Amino acid sequence: MTPLKIMTQPTANTPKSARAARATDVPARCKYKVALVEDQPDVRASWAKLINSFPDFSCVFTCATGEEALRAIPPEQPDVVLMDIFLPRMSGIETTVRLKALLPQTQVVMLTAMADQELVFLALEAGADGYLLKRTKPSALRAALLDVLGGGVPMTSQIARRVIESFRQKAIVRDESARLSIREEQILLQLSQGYSNKQIADKLDLSIDTVCTHLKHVFNKLHVRSRTEAVVRYMASKAPLQKPPDSP
After folding, report:
1. Where in the chain is the domain with CATH 3.40.50.2300?
2. Among 51, 152, 191, 239, which is most exposed with the fewest C-beta within 10 angstroms?
3. Alpha helices of 77-125 — where are they, by DSSP H?
4. pLDDT tens digits, 104-153
């Protein structure tokens, strides 16, 4: 996909004052690169135009699906990815899990039309670095982008509280994951790589019924209700614990 135009060049007919102002703009090579994953064409075009209106940001790539994002975003090496939670087929949460594995340094900020705390919190567990409502004002969007690039986590105070609570539950999740059998972990690993039940059955030389039975056990042990949630919780449980900077 051809990257969007970053800025137009002044011409001889451009007023002198406008040319002078344009000369003070942030050079294209200094702009932060943003990729946008949004399935609604009008919303995608509107957000891309808005991002390109900021002097320090450039929307270098847009796409409509998670599958396309995983293929095309890594070569772009964007600084930030704005990711819609609700995408067709592969959700934005599942896409985030896989994209962060490919681009661990890229900041992923979720986009949602509603402040569903459960979904947003699951997205943060998946590796998202923050979230924004789609009704976010232009000035707030730019501030949020700068915030996440500066190491901040744009989110509401309610979600921040949930994050704190998650640390208290971390040990419990790890204990539950430790109870998974070797076969259940094998199936979860295949699941995290995007394979269907049939593909997993073929790869592990099992019947589809056996795979489904194992998945039911996994769901019960991890206290989840979906394949995506199982993968997210499992990957979160395997993430190494990090001590605070001041810890001995």
Report:
1. 16-155, 162-238
2. 239
3. 92-102, 117-125
4. 999 999 988 876 767 777 888 788 898 888 888 898 899 999 999 998 88
